[in-house]
Structure formats: structure tokens, C-alpha cells
Amino acid sequence: MTEVATARRSRITPEREAELYEAVLELLREVGYDALTMDAVAARTRSSKATLYRQWGGKAELVAKAVRHSKPGRATDIDTGTLRGDMHAMVDREDDCTIERNSALMRGLAMATHNHPDLLRAFRELLVEPEMEEFRRVTQRAIDRGEIRADCPALEFVVHMMIGAFATRTVIEDLPPTQAYLTSYIDAVVLPALGASTT
Description:
Blueprint lengths: L2 H7 L4 H22 L2 H8 L3 H8 L2 H12 L12 H10 L3 H18 L3 H29 L12 H16 L5 H16 L5
Helix pairs in contact: 2-3, 2-5, 2-7, 5-8, 6-10, 9-10
């Protein structure tokens, strides 16, 4: 990155960036991705559209980074000593209300990726790939502790299983995912698939 680009990006403080991300998420919940515009974000946040484009490049990157910023810390920061403890602790970082709101938001954004390749690319690069890498580190710790085998075929599907838990409960049962549901799902599905202890 050039010095000029670095100087431009440094104009927004972390606090201001957090405010912008929160405003983007509020707008997404109100109008959805298709109707979200950079003009609307600029108006809501009292920013110039030029600043938004300079900082984020476009709507897709801004939305993906806003979602990433809203995540409650990194999975790799949790280390309870067991894979089950780590996975339960990840679920416990958000209350049921937050889980439900985020699940609804992610369902809407997942639908939007079908019509917006730039959003799909931004999500893969800024959200999916970093989260998969964090899960790999969490499961690698479990391998190092001897909890699961390094050649377990389910290892590459852990993120798929967890996303499935979030995405399908509303569709199948017309109920939101909750902490209790997700921890039960981890114990009944994810840990047995990995050959890990469920107690």
C-alpha cells in the first residue's frame, strides 16, 4: 500500500469505523442488501460518499467488513482445554436475541450473494476464509491434545456443519437458532462426527 493510501485510510478512527459498521448493519436489517446504497450509508453516518468509497471500495466490501466487525472476538482467543468447551464457549459469546438477529441478517445476505458476485467474493475473502482458518486452528489444538484424529474426514466440514445449524433451523422448524439448540447440535452432530468427547 502506498503512503498516500495509508494516510487516507488512517483518517477514520477505530471508534468512527465501529459507528459506521453499526449503521451499515442497521440499514441492512431495515432495507436489505439490494436496497442498501452508499448514499444511504453516507446520509445515516453523516459521511461523504467519497470517503466511504476511498475507505472500503464499494458496498460489498463495506458490508462484509461490517459483518466481520460485529463478530464477538476471534474463535482462536478461546482455549478452555477441550474442543467441546471451546465450541460451547464460542456459542456462549452471544445471547439468544443477538443470535436470532444475526441469523436473520446472514440468511438475507446469503440470498443476496446469488445475485451479487462481488458480495460473494467479499464474503469469501473477508468472512468465510478467516473464520475457516480460525476453526482450523481450534481443531488443530484438539488434534495436538489427542482429542481428534488428524485424518478425520469430518474435519473439513466443521464450518459447513455450524453454518447448517444456523441456516436450517428456521427453514425446517420455523424457530430461530438459540444457545441451547446450538450447544445440543454441537454435542449431537459436530463432536460425534469428529470423534471427540461429548462430555
